[in-house]
Design goal:
The chain is mainly β and about 550 residues long. It folds into three domains: about 5-25 and about 425-560, Sandwich (Immunoglobulin-like), CATH 2.60.40; about 35-55 and about 260-415, Cupredoxins -  blue copper proteins (Immunoglobulin-like, Sandwich), CATH 2.60.40; about 90-240, Immunoglobulin-like (Sandwich), CATH 2.60.40. The protein contains four helices and 32 strands. Residues about 1-35 have low confidence and may be disordered.
Length: about 550
């Protein structure tokens, strides 16, 4: 496997050639000297070493861990028709397809509505907002070459009291889709309205190396994203192709045969806070960002998950609103990282931890076949953070217990492990750096007049701050303007590659394709990006959703 030194060639971006992506990752074991120390003793049940976040009125009611199983969201099923019928003229239905093929669209319907939810057996049932009234919302499944049209209907109560607003704009995060269906922040549904989103499920540039994997969908209503998503408006959208086919018994010799079906598990991590009565609490006026003191996974506080002695694929998503995570396994065992922001790496990377900013995704393989029945392993967050600005820098050990894995059976019969983790996953797309060097922009993310700005300007969704020519490669420099905050920056429509971080080479986990990049305090990152297939209005913003809501977002238009 090539080493970091081999990657030096990529840092020399001057020159007139396009670069093809190779395998640049190295295992964590090659970066760490000597064997891992033995894991510390586990914490007593109910004990959490994380300090109480600043800004909360007090600690949430006490809850014991491991009382509830991990819920797995249901898969959204298609419908035979929609009434009223979709308006074809609203959409660019043929973009990305050969018009002579005339692909048919699968039809889906999602109602955005209140529902009763249990965060924990020791807390009261309470109303949330959810896609189909549940959190997480139903998982959407997509296959390349099979376009879909999804009708989102807003059934939220118009007379709502409390945080959140009953107006929604659903964004298919990391989707390659038309502007009309992107979930623009200022194009939102009032209660009682619906909107049809067309997801063509096409490859950017027609390049199979641009295939996507772990996406998610969430509310994006301007000024209220943090509140509406915190109330429950989020779910997964998983894409598959002939390589990552979602079938570990796929007879196609090109298929990777990664763990699939019941062994491909989406996990959305959200930190929550509750008032003294056990009701969900949120403070939308903490401009730094909001932290909770309860760890929810798929909407349940500190659940357990029973596993067979075999390999599993876990798709981790930091669902926000503001906290960063650094996940470790309590026994010190490594995990196999196969994807960043849901996009396959060139080669698997063995890691002992995963650091994730808001909206970032990490796909990992954990092999439980090495453990005897009865083994219990805790997924811990060891990154200390006490406010929405940034982590303290202290790595706790042991960390906060978030999710318990319980090995309770052998993998036999229908659970037999047919999966594999190949040494080669997906090649990186070619980059035209020579052209990109002729098209450079710089963006500074900073605090201005008590709110959040990009290049000194607050968000204006009614007019573009700049335009980008469709298909022309770009190099963008993203700068954290300082002040003691971190910013996870998300760009709509296209993914990017990280070329440099603070003038140096990116870390191994930075070498894949991304739609979110974490700017730590004072950092500067150079990225390569190119916008293809679609024109129209899109946005870039900080995904600390309190920063986003308080104007750290910019509209740009893609023009022919």
């Amino acid at each position: 496997m090539p080493t970091r030194r081999n990657f030096m060639k990529w840092g020399l971006v001057a020159g007139g050639v396009a670069l093809a992506g190779g395998s640049f990752l190295q295992s964590a074991s090659s970066q760490q000297g000597g064997p891992c120390p033995p894991p510390p003793q586990p914490l007593p049940p109910g004990v959490d070493p994380m300090p109480l976040p600043e800004g909360l009125p007090g600690p949430s009611p006490a809850t014991l861990p491991w009382l509830a199983p991990l819920p797995i969201p249901p898969v959204l099923q298609p419908v035979s028709s929609l009434s009223p019928a979709p308006i074809a003229g609203e959409h660019e239905l043929q973009l990305g397809f050969n018009p002579s093929l005339g692909p048919l669209n699968q039809l889906f319907k999602i109602d955005i509505k209140p529902g009763l939810h249990s965060f924990h057996p020791q807390l009261p049932m309470q109303e949330i907002w959810g896609y189909e009234g549940i959190f997480p919302g139903p998982t959407m499944i997509a296959h390349y070459g099979q376009p879909k049209l999804v009708r989102f209907r807003n059934l939220l109560p118009i007379n709502h009291v409390g945080f959140g607003v009953p107006e929604t704009s659903t964004h298919n995060h990391n989707g390659h889709q038309e502007s009309f269906s992107d979930g623009h922040p200022t194009t939102f549904l009032l209660s009682g309205q619906h909107r049809d989103h067309h997801y063509p499920i096409v490859l950017a540039g027609g390049d199979p190396n641009e295939a996507l994997g772990s996406l998610w969908y969430h509310d994006h209503r301007v000024d209220f994203t943090s509140q509406n998503v915190y109330r429950g408006l989020a779910g997964f959208h998983l894409y598959f192709d002939s390589l990552d086919s979602g079938n570990e018994q796929d007879p196609n010799p090109q298929a990777l045969r990664l763990p699939s079906g019941n062994f491909d598990i989406p996990l959305i991590f959200t930190d929550k806070a509750f008032d003294s009565a056990g009701q969900l609490y949120f403070n939308p006026f903490n401009f730094d960002g909001f932290l909770g003191d309860k760890w929810a996974v798929n909407g349940v506080i500190q659940p357990y998950f029973k596993v067979a002695r075999r390999k599993y694929r876990f798709r981790l998503l930091n669902g926000g609103p503001s906290r960063l995570y650094e996940f470790h396994l309590s026994n010190g065992a490594p995990m196999t990282l196969i994807a960043t922001d849901g996009n396959l790496l060139t080669s698997p990377l063995e890691v002992d931890h995963l650091r994730m900013g808001v909206a970032q995704r990490r796909d990992v393989i954990i092999d439980f076949s090495q453990y005897p029945i009865g083994t219990e392993i805790i997924l811990e967050n060891r990154l200390e953070q006490v406010d929405g600005r940034k982590p303290t820098g202290h790595i706790m050990n042991p960390g906060s217990p978030v999710l318990k894995f319980i090995v309770d059976r052998d993998a036999i019969g229908a659970e037999h492990d047919f999966s594999q983790v190949p040494s080669n996953l997906r090649p990186m797309p070619v980059m035209d750096l020579a052209t990109a060097q002729q098209n450079q922009r710089t963006f500074v993310f900073n605090r201005t007049d008590g709110a959040w700005a990009i290049n000194g300007q607050f968000f204006n969704g009614n007019a573009p701050a700049f335009t980008v020519t469709q298909g022309v490669p770009q190099i963008w420099t993203l700068k954290n303007g300082g002040g003691g905050w971190v910013h996870p920056i998300h760009i709509h429509l296209e993914e990017f590659r990280i070329l440099q971080r603070n003038g140096g080479l990116p870390a191994p986990e930075d070498m894949g394709r991304h739609d979110v990049v974490l700017l730590e305090e004072g950092e500067e990152v150079k990225i390569y990006i190119r916008f293809r297939t679609f024109t129209g209005k899109y946005v870039m913003h900080c995904h600390n959703t309190l920063h986003e809501d308080h104007a750290m977002m910019v509209r740009f238009d893609i023009v022919p």
